[in-house]
Design a protein that fits this description.
The structure is a homodimer of 412-residue chains. By secondary structure, chain A is α/β, with parallel strands linked by helices. Chain A is built from 14 helices and 17 strands.
Chain lengths: 412, 412
């Protein structure tokens, strides 16, 4: 199966919006074993949309077209598809009724132009709208198919998973279910992971299902994604469980989470399970660790707060750090102890380092000292030498420190 | 002039990287009055790159192709262009020398495959490489032109501005210089700005130069971009100055910065100018305000630090807030006073609010109270009702609070 992607919208060509939909679709299609050879962006121009649809249909089995399904006069994807199909648009009463009910439910009057969204190329199948007012469309064009979905990402995601992927899989004639599991790792490079998993990868290549892919996740480490095809969800889950275990046998200690878990959610969950509270003291990261922990709803039952001791005097006066070098393991430990005391938490976590651009007291840019003060009164510290670049160094500091705390919590 | 964009790389089709280059180019081309009708992504496949180049050249005057200029075997953009031009590749000695010198300067041995980057289609002009090892190319194809640039954004940006844009403008036969100025606003909607600037916009439409565009900047407000075409940099700057003044006449009070300035850099600069230091106390934003301020290199001469008082007891015990409701203007003012005292700063800024998902003590999600304690001992506070969604509410809180402080500093 080959499936191309066309993103519609003059705002995309003008760079007012970055087209992230196509990348997301490319990733989903690849995981399902469907080739995406070509992706295009085209403006709100009927002739050009029609030409692009014809060109992409010529060398693909399917085309997903995103955007241009809204209610305004420049939303003309429906018209373009009808022209490619060689049919008329007609009002679909059921779709119209759903749109009207959506407005009624929100207590709002429906502007008449919303009924444009109920105009459907004759013969097209409807992907019922759930999150927005525009339905998706499944449009047969000879032996091939055009899927139309709204450009709003969260509407598009839902329709792709609910209707398009199953339809593509059915047309492919193979397995009817695809399930992925993402194992999130921190602490090794892609080539390092590849080396450690070479046995598993070779074994997988022989059986061909599931597949394994490495996905860089920016400052968040490397994700190992397993994707299984099967004839039922249960069968897919079983396959994933077997191969997840094999991957964990090799690199289990650097897997910090699965799927939607983040380093911060995992650390908060561990603390919650152990009935421990946390306070942080930050210098180099200036509040980013606290900011990430509090991004998780419900952090308040575990996270007490933080002290951003950016100026040295704040370290001395508020956290009772002894006067002297402030980028050292000793200072980090004292900061952690200070955080525990000032914030009345069970655990203290502290970060001090040099983000640059200039070195500080002859300590190199990229140096990070992390201190942990534990509930039993003991302290620990470690020094990292991180890549430079102020933003990069700070972001890597956040995840390095949280991972260090995670390891300490696991060891206890 | 019409200029299409082709992004090359299988990793783009697989969604491993989001193609932000095309959006950036689209924005730059639009600002220069050059139409971008079509943008495409294609994998590392010679036949498909050639086909895509031919198809895009058919209905554009110029094509910018990004990526595939590196040293490895799957970097085949050079080969594709040579095929479209109908010429051979040949080694360019000058380019080869520069690459060798780059390795020597870094004290590294040059892997031989790097010389692939010195292979150039016969007749192509070189855009000398400055940031990376691969040069750009200007390749005449009949009446039309193909520009090749590396896919690494910061290499591409530099070559576009230095060589491609001037070449495009020269081919267009019009003005030789394009300059933009971005006026960054916070506090009004795009339609509100449009209404207030309707006089300026009408006047501009008559003269046609500069142009004015509104660019939404996510949680950072709306940017008003003026773009002037002229025959010299001085002439362009003069035009921009005249029209910037007219825009400021209408909406000056909500313009917080120009071009690369950010809300945090502006606030830090104002404090520095007034020789004042800042301390913050954060609850709802959990460290994000401090995190943003410290993202600015050199913040340390103004920013003392922060207290993330997430748990109520930290507000009472560390910041000496009186016991009672913690999301109120009174609490925000007390937090600001506490921050000033604990952190020994001239100014205290405090945020307390409800990010959700649930309301807190019957206070609605989206409520933000900001308190400021000034150097003269006086305090002020304000309440915002922000859109909900935990991440959105928190990010809008950061910029709302910083803007409030900016206004207070300006008034003093």
């Amino acid at each position: 199966m080959r499936c191309s992607v066309v993103a519609v919208g003059t705002e995309l060509l003008l760079g007012q919006i970055v087209d992230t939909n196509s990348a997301w679709l490319g990733e989903q299609l690849a995981a399902a074993g469907i080739d995406s050879l070509y992706q295009a962006k085209v403006g709100d121009n009927l002739a050009r949309i029609v030409a692009t649809l014809r060109a992409t249909l010529a060398d693909a089995d399917a085309v997903i077209i995103c955007g241009g399904l809204g209610p305004t006069h420049d939303d003309i994807t429906r018209e373009a598809i009808a022209e490619v199909m060689g049919v008329e648009l007609e009002l679909n009463d059921e779709v119209a009724l759903v749109i009207e009910q959506m407005f009624t439910a929100r207590g709002r009057r429906m502007p008449q132009n919303n009924l444009r969204q109920a105009m459907v190329p004759r013969g097209a199948r409807i992907i019922g709208q759930r999150r927005g007012t525009a339905p998706g469309l499944i449009c047969q064009v000879g032996e091939k198919v055009v899927y139309a979905v709204p450009g709003v990402p969260f509407e598009m995601f839902e329709m792709f998973e609910r209707a398009i992927l199953p339809d593509l899989l059915a047309r492919g004639g193979g397995a009817s279910t695809i399930k992925s599991r993402v194992l999130r790792t921190w602490g090794d490079s892609e080539s390092g992971l590849n080396e450690r998993l070479v046995g598993v990868i070779n074994e997988l290549e022989k059986v061909g299902n599931p597949t394994l892919a490495f996905l860089a996740s920016g400052w968040e480490g490397i994700n190992v994604r397993l994707t299984a095809k099967a004839h039922s969800v249960e069968e897919a889950e079983q396959l994933l469980a077997i191969w997840e275990a094999k991957v964990r046998d090799q690199v289990g200690e650097i897997i910090f989470g699965v799927d939607q878990q983040t380093m911060e959610s995992v650390v908060l969950d561990m603390l919650r399970q152990k009935n421990l509270t946390l306070g942080v003291a930050e210098s180099v990261t200036g509040g980013l660790v606290a900011g990430r922990l509090t991004a998780v709803a419900g952090a308040s039952d575990v996270f007490r707060g933080g002290v951003v001791s950016y100026a040295s005097e704040v370290k001395f006066d508020v956290l009772s750090v002894s006067r002297g070098p402030v980028v050292s393991e000793k200072a980090a430990q004292e900061m952690a102890v200070g955080a525990r005391k000032v914030l009345q938490s069970d655990i203290g976590l502290a970060l001090t380092g040099v983000a640059g651009p200039d070195e500080q007291d002859s300590i190199k840019v990229g140096t990070l000292c992390v201190g942990v003060a534990l509930a039993d009164g003991s302290t620990k510290a470690v020094t990292f030498h991180l890549p430079t670049g102020r933003e990069q160094m700070r972001q890597l500091s956040v995840i390095s420190a949280l991972n260090y705390l995670r390891q300490e919590l696991r060891a206890k």
